[in-house]
Amino acid sequence: MSKPEPLSGVLREIEAVAGREAALTIARKLGGTRVYFPAQPGADHWLSQLLGHDAALAIGEQLTGGFAGGARIDIPCGRFGHAETARAKVDSMIRQGATERDIALATRYTTRGIRKRKAKLRDGSQMDLFKT
Question: Which residues of 68-96 are buried (b: 16+ CB within 10 A; e: fewer)?
């Protein structure tokens, strides 16, 4: 089983205090937008409703450093962004044995880009053979 991709930036901070699923949930729901995080979200705040009050409090403290005014933070899309989603579709179609032409037409990738993805997948799978 492969190790999950490390999260970056604010998603890594959220992961540190509330767990990976919380960070991914926020990226999935709010990625690509600027979001206000209060230092101490109430039980009825959207963050508490989404992740639970304890997680919301931990995230609020982490992202604001306790500053009472809260903070507006740009949330990255992470693996749910357009590029990541398109890449996942290309990778899936490659694994299913689709032709480069069919993949290009379905994803708007170039055939050259598809060949590069094939090589990257092939190189990655060869590395797995040598892991202990």
Answer: eeeeebebbbbbbeeeeeebeebbebbee
Taking alpha carbons only, the member of 48, 30, 51 closest to residue 40 is: 48
Task: Decide if 71 contacts 34 (C-beta within 8 A).
Answer: no
Contacts of 80 (CB under 8 A, 6+ apart): 24, 27, 28, 31
Rounded distance between C-alpha atoms, residue 29 and residue 54, angstroms? 19
> Is pLDDT of 2 > 60?
no
For the entire predicted model, the pTM comes to 0.63
Helix, strand or coil, per DSSP, at residue 34? strand
Q: How far apart are CA 123 and CA 51, in angstroms?
A: 38
Q: What is the tens place of the pLDDT at every residue in 71-127?
A: 999 998 876 666 777 888 899 999 999 999 999 888 888 889 899 999 988 876 544
The torsion angles phi and psi of 70, rounded to 5 degrees, stand at 75, -170
Backbone φ/ψ region at 42: left (φ over 0), alpha (ψ -120 to 50), beta: beta
